[in-house]
Amino acid sequence: MSLPALGWDDDWAAQVDVGAGRARSAVARVSRADATSARLLTPDGEASVAAHGLVVGDWVVLDGTSRPRPLARRTLLSRQSSGRDSTEQPLAANVDVVAVVEPMWPEPNVRRIERMLTLAWASGGQPLVILSKADLFTSGVRSAVAEVESAAPGVDVLAVSATCGDGLAGMRHRLGPGRTFVLLGPSGAGKSSLVNALAGEEVLATGDVRGDGRGRHTTTHRELVLLEGVGLLIDTPGIRSVGMTADDDGLARVFEDVVVHAADCRYTDCGHAVEPGCSVRAAVDAGALPAARVESYLRLQREIEHQSRRKRTRERSQERRDTTGRNQAKAMAMRAKGR
Ligand SMILES: Nc1nc2c(ncn2[C@@H]2O[C@H](COP(=O)(O)OP(=O)(O)OP(=O)(O)O)[C@@H](O)[C@H]2O)c(=O)[nH]1
Ligand SMILES: [Zn+2]
């Protein structure tokens, strides 16, 4: 494998202070990462290193002495993990395309697609929707795609089948050597099957879907896979909950059609619920906006606001701790001097 096949280019090279000839032995791409170690892809093969704070997809500099240092990320896909002490969890770094994978069968969950697309836009990468298992649809593929398209302004929607190969050309066309996709979607959506289908061989394990159509969480870790001549794919374990992060950049992109009406509301802080002069409600009443889409927008907005408040609180208490720590250090230094 070569560095360009791993996604290396002149802009990355400009970030590191090594001669062009030396880059080959001095940089590597993270293919797997956990709390204490990482696996790296280098032109000379794979390597495992002790590391922390790395994210799959990162580029790192290796100087042989200290721990691998990540280069500034171009894009970063994150989600809010679930649970009481929920934190922002980075999922993949330096991806060109965030492919939101949603099974067509029994039917695509449009609300979940909107959620995943909000994170996709916020990552800085280009979102794409993959409707998987298109072979299970004998008719109506076109109208299912059209329905999802209307919930994903500015995003291409592809109907794809890993089993019979339909639509894979559309993915190949958007990939290409050195380009990186991350596949984001629920368990059982067929993410690992897509990687295998693009590879033309079994590179990842896949799992059966339970009777209710849900997956069994076959993929257990995030992994970057290099497919020679095709591109780079990051497979992620199916996520049960797609929590919104504090970043609201993505929301306005996904809900462009809602936001355009919101600009005409009488009150600038309109909640689009019961306020007089609400243009969003008026558009719903006139049939110009689906009510479910507006509900979805408001729900995601509330989640993002909640996370933003939590983030601010955390930052403030961290600041207080820092100030206290600094004051204590100062007081100790004064006492030491006084002695
Ligand atoms: N009919 C049909 N079945 C598919 C297709 N793609 C995947 N499947 C089946 O769906 C099941 C789940 O596929 P996986 O590729 O393991 O799904 P995943 O999204 O990687 O799941 P996790 O690893 O749990 O996140 C397997 O039984 C596959 O055989 C497809 O295009 N058509
Ligand atoms: Zn309003």
UniProtKB/TrEMBL annotation:
Annotated EC: 3.6.1.-
A Gene Ontology biological process term: ribosomal small subunit biogenesis
Location in or out of the cell: Cytoplasm
Primary location: cytoplasm
Residues involved in Zn(2+) binding: 265, 270, 272, 278
Pfam families according to UniProt: RsgA_GTPase (PF03193)
UniProt GO molecular function: GTP binding; GTPase activity; metal ion binding; rRNA binding
Residues the entry annotates as binding GTP: 132-135, 185-193
One GO term describing the cellular component: cytoplasm
Biased composition (Basic and acidic residues): 315-324
Cofactor note: Binds 1 zinc ion per subunit.
Region (Disordered) residue spans: 305-339
Residues in CP-type G domain copies: 84-242
Cofactor: Zn(2+)
Leading EC class: hydrolase
Function: One of several proteins that assist in the late maturation steps of the functional core of the 30S ribosomal subunit. Helps release RbfA from mature subunits. May play a role in the assembly of ribosomal proteins into the subunit. Circularly permuted GTPase that catalyzes slow GTP hydrolysis, GTPase activity is stimulated by the 30S ribosomal subunit.
HAMAP family: GTPase_RsgA (MF_01820)
Assembly and oligomerization: Monomer. Associates with 30S ribosomal subunit, binds 16S rRNA.
Family according to the record: Belongs to the TRAFAC class YlqF/YawG GTPase family. RsgA subfamily.
PANTHER family assigned: SMALL RIBOSOMAL SUBUNIT BIOGENESIS GTPASE RSGA
Protein name: Small ribosomal subunit biogenesis GTPase RsgA
Gene, per the UniProt record: rsgA
